[in-house]
Amino acid sequence: MTPPRIVIIGGGAGGLELATRLGNKLGQKQRAQVTLVDQNHTHIWKPLLHEVATGTLDYEIAQLSYRAHARAHHFEFQLGRFLSLNRQQQQIMLAPVYADDGEQVLASRELSYDYLVLAIGSVSNDFNTPGIASNCIFLDSPAQAKRFHRHLLDAYLKLNSPGHPKDKLNIAIVGGGATGIELAAELYHAAAELNLYGFADLRKDRLNINVIEAGPRILPALPERIAGAALKELKKLGVTVRTDTKVTSADNRGLHLGEEYLEAELKVWAAGIKAPDFLTTLDGLENNRINQLLVNTQLQTQLDPRIYAIGDCAGSKMANGNWVPPRAQSAHQMASVVAYNIIATLNHKPLRDFQYKDHGSLISLSRFGTVGNLMGNLVGGAMMIEGRIARLAYVSLYRMHQVALHGWLKMLFISMVARINRIVRPRLKLH
Ligand SMILES: Cc1cc2nc3c(=O)[nH]c(=O)nc-3n(C[C@H](O)[C@H](O)[C@H](O)COP(=O)(O)OP(=O)(O)OC[C@H]3O[C@@H](n4cnc5c(N)ncnc54)[C@H](O)[C@@H]3O)c2cc1C
Q1: Which residue has better confidence, 417 or 1?
Q2: Cα(370)–Cα(386) distance, rounded to whole angstroms?
Q3: Which of 131, 218, 283, 311 is the most buried (most CB within 10 A)?
Q4: pLDDT at 232 over 50
């Protein structure tokens, strides 16, 4: 009998952990053929993208090759962009793959599955605001983060050159959620580091960073006390935070805030997410308002129990009626439940319900501080932490992802290598 085919689309925070676990548990013993599909060759944990964007993290070093990881964990990797689904034939369609010069490297392909897991994450939601897509940078993918980094270095080069007409570099970040706030702080860190590498004129006061938030306060998903602590730190750095301010459109020179015009050489849009639009036409599968695929308590799509959805692209409701938040910890928890449920199905055992556990949220203000709360579920988000403990908890989130991928021992080696790199390599990606 041929083993069942499990296809996972999307090798991100949730999908790669799931492929690793199923590969180790089923692939190794040939109890199932596990295939991971991703549009990229390599994985990076998405919460690190703002560090890639500012250059405080070198993407070339932090990325993980899907192919190498697949070999070590007994699954197959297929490079390709997921296009469409045929539920009756249990097949997915992948787009052709092209080289940089436009030559077709792989033709479009169909892959058959017995169980399918959709883990393709989310994209920025610009709410159809005019001019945003063509004039703002999103931080949805490594390619976009690298693009921002190149623009940033060019802007710093100009600013640092003698005779440059402008005294300041204007950066506008739309969205006062975790991504926008963390990026703002990281930009000050990067500027301070660049000062050591020949950008002598790049002082902190030459950065003019505006964070624009439509709601009444930053970090709306977090308790007020944490938002207050983050705001205090941002103000200390020199960031201007504008709340109750809506961006009405953008052009290549800046942003329109109703009547007001805010000039900005670099514009980042980080004001909310949605699942990719094409999920609304996926062979009848149902969606919520932000395109997420509706799933039942066992994380199967509501119309098709052979198809699961996890992470940012899954619309899963909590007992209180709210949607599970699009976070790395949700993707991680969902991956564990779907691994359990697929194995249980093969063993003819009952499936497990998914129950989101909020372990708290942490906001890294780069080296200037970390604030957050722990055990959101247990104490209603009341346990606020700051400083070193918060930093440790923040880093441990990534370490847990690495443990899920590599196990404890290899994670420790990887952390050691990262420490050594901090000594032997420049503190910033400089090109
Ligand atoms: C800058 C930033 C900071 C963040 N900080 C935090 C934080 O501190 N804490 C936290 O909990 N969360 C944070 N998040 C949110 C977190 O990153 C996401 O919630 C999490 O990564 C979702 O995991 P996922 O597996 O659903 O999707 P992702 O991790 O986004 O992975 C999706 C994968 O699918 C692939 N893919 C997409 N479309 C296709 C396609 N059509 N075909 C094939 N492959 C495809 C992508 O290449 C990617 O590998 C942050 C996000 C950003 C952008």
Answers
A1: 417
A2: 6
A3: 311
A4: yes
